[in-house]
Q: What sequence folds into this?
């Protein structure tokens, strides 16, 4: 997944209910953010302002601001949301 901010990467930690943010150059952890139960899918928002995380067990989609690393939205979803790949809107011209 391309990073919304240069030098940062994001990865879900399923059993911990968190997203780990890391420095892409050193691979050192920068922050751990609580998002929801059993986060599985993660993708950059189309405008690069953050990441969306599908939380399978809590039936939510969490939006995490890429700059501040603060959860800005938690959206209720139907049971068992999962996502792999691009799932946050059109990524290019049609």
A:
């Amino acid at each position: 997944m391309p990073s919304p901010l240069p030098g940062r990467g994001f990865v879900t930690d399923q059993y911990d209910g968190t997203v780990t943010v890391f420095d892409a150059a050193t691979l050192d952890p920068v922050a751990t953010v609580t998002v929801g139960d059993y986060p599985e899918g993660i993708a950059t928002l189309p405008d690069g302002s953050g990441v969306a995380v599908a939380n399978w067990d809590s039936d939510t989609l969490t939006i995490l601001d890429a700059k501040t690393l603060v959860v800005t939205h938690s959206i209720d979803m139907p049971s068992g949301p999962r996502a792999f790949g691009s799932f946050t809107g059109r990524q290019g011209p049609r």
Remarks:
- DSSP finds no helices and seven strands in the chain.
- The first strand starts at residue 8 and ends at 13.
- The beta strands are 8-13, 18-23, 29-34, 39-44, 50-55, 60-65, 71-76.
- Residues 62 and 85 are 16 Å apart (CA to CA).
